[in-house]
Write a structure and sequence with these properties.
This protein is an alpha/beta fold. It is 45% helix and 18% strand. The chain is built from 17 helices and 11 strands. It has helices at 3-12, 16-20, 73-91, 99-110, 118-138, 142-145, 168-184, 198-212, 228-241, 255-264, 277-286, 297-300, 302-315, 328-339, 363-366, 375-381, 400-406; strands at 24-42, 45-59, 64-68, 153-159, 189-193, 217-221, 245-247, 268-271, 292-293, 355-358, 385-387. Strands 4, 5, 6, 7, 8, 9, 10 and 11 form an 8-stranded mixed beta sheet that branches. α3 packs across α5 (118-138), α4 (99-110) packs antiparallel against α5 (118-138) and α9 runs parallel beside α10. The radius of gyration is 22 Å and the shape is globular. Bound molecules: calcium ion. Calcium ion (CA) binds next to loops. Residues 221, 223, 247-248, 273 line the site of calcium ion.
Amino acid sequence: MTRRLKAATAEASPEPAERTRMKIARITSHVLQYDMPEELGYSQQFYRKRTAHIVEVETDAGITGWGECFGPGTVALANRAIVEQVIQPIVLGMDPLDCDVIWHRVYNLLRDHGQKGMPLQALSGVDIALWDIAGKAAGLPIHKLIGGAHRESVPVYGYGMMLRREDAASLAARFADEAAAIKANGFVATKMKVGLGPRQDVALAEAVRRGVGDDFDFMVDANHCYTAADAFHVGYALDELGAHWFEEPVAPEDLDGYAALRAGLKVNIAGGEAEFSRWGWRSLLESGGLDIAQPEVCSLGGISEYLRVLALCHAHFTPVVNHVWGSAIAVATNLQLLAAMPPLPGGLNPREPMLEFDTTENRFRDDLLTKPLDIQGQVERNGGRAAIPDGPGLGVEPDRDFLRHYAV
Ligand code: CA
């Protein structure tokens, strides 16, 4: 090569490694909390405080990424310690674009201390922030980085109908009204809680069916409060009512219970929000107890691990409807993933993955961002659908004044 050609080549392509090398400079957990205007409940407990755990990863290149860890209340405080005091020292100085290297370095070092649960929830928030950084560095939304958008918007289902401390009859009347209101607001389907006991729970489901009428999908979330026998009692009623899915009917460890329910009931059996990593999901899918998989990206190990779990679910021909809980960061993360989810199995009119959306009062979902997603407004205006953010990374930015105001 002549000297002149060499010089021209060098000018045309400066060392890319030099140009893009970034370092992780700091990781901060923002745990946010406020007292809710109204106490709400599900089958395990009532709660009065709304909590969110937002993770901020700063780089030496001026790019900041945002993520979120699943986990309410005091769990968020414990996860903050894992993020800042356990994971941060492992990854400081690493290149944030090496998200898979980082994932495995953290997982391998924490393996002896928890292959599920809070270490994975903590890692999830960091991993999501690294993907946000990667998108911002490339100037592309995350869905472009993981293969592109199969759809530009997604249908949204609204969940509500939380438990309250009132008698079963008035709760049933409230559920019927609330279900009708969610339908009237434009959501494509709705989901209710149960947990009063099998007999009263059937009455609640009947009330919701009355509220939405015959031609509308409703789903039932037990948050794993039943034995398999009680789940069958409720499940037979859901078969008669034409419920679309029966979520977490039994404990997540009860793989035999899941398989028996799936074999014996018509209603779709859904679950998986309490499962972690590709290894946990392998066992869950192989046990054959799921009609619908509900991976939680802010819990199971972040976007890097979600993509592996999604591939496993599709390898088992199990459709995926992501579990979504938390702030607008979690909602934006899931919009990116739902855009890039391939149709299963494909066709002219495939059943599309839906976005799960909490219809109860939640400032961390509505007011956290500099530019709110306004999912409720979109659903109302756009036939029950929400658009995929197309800005770089997650496509959203939290408002720092808001973070400071609600910090614990
Ligand atoms: Ca659930």
